[in-house]
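Thread: quick sanity check before group meeting

JM: Hey all, I'm pulling together slides for Thursday and realized we never actually wrote out the predicted structure for the chain we discussed last week. Dropping the sequence here so it's in one place. If anyone has concerns about the input, flag it before I start.
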Amino acid sequence: MFDSTSDSLPLAFGKLHLSVLLAGFTGIFGKLISLNEGLLVWYRLLITTLVFGIMLGLGGRMPKLSFRDALRMGGVGALLALHWVFFYGSIKASNVSVGVVSFSTVGFFTAVLEPLADGRRISPREIAFSLLTVAGVGLIFHFDTRYRAGISLGIVGAVLAALFTIANKRVARGHQAPAVLWYELIGGFLGLSCFLPFYLPALSVSFSLPEGRDFLCLFMLSLFCTIGLYILQIQALQSISAFTVNLTYNLEPVYSIVLAMLFFGEARQLNAAFYAGLGLIVLSVALQTLSAMRRNRAALRLPGAA
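JM (edit): ok, ran it. Output follows.
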């Protein structure tokens, strides 16, 4: 779990898909927790940082990095915190299904931004796959005006998520996953702590403590859907491109929507345009998966790769 070396491709893809399954529950917890999205993320970061710090301390694995590396990871963590705020804001302005579908545009933004960051040409294939997702979200946006505010917030969150994954891949290189996560959590908590005094009054929201179900959901969200999820994601990024990771995360709406139907009966709130848009997103994931399997087939045959 704490190994910083690259995994074989089958193992890396296994970790990636397990993290996606865990991600499917994040929207459910966001809907169950009654707190404002800013407070929700702040408490998520607080609990996660404390629990993860205790885990590292008891295991004798408290990471020590240079100030420069710690600062870089902290900055990436602040980006993650902002993404979470917009993601949960999208869910609270609409519902779980719309929030996670809007998040799916992260594949398109990554296909554009990652090549620019790496100084390489934009792949027409990646753009084509991602445009299917954009078309799916656009279909929902155009025909169902009830959720435009939620979709708009979700798309901003998707841009921030794409920037986070690209930056995360850079700062994680050569470091153990727990060290990366630890400093990103601290950076996200400190960054959001500086932002909340301005954010909450602007929305006329007062500071409050989580109680009962809110606290239980926050703890589960922190332990399983933050610590477990992001360690798996960081490890997968050692062997898999940020584009493939983000496009694979387009499966998250499938898990989240099924869960939302079971928990909240959201099937009654969704129309034909939504399901048509979701179909385009699933098609985008299927095409990318087939393409990735073809590109990686030769690598899987290399000695020691299995």
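AS: nice. The radius of gyration is 19 Å. The chain is about 75% helix and 0% strand.
JM: adding both to the slides.
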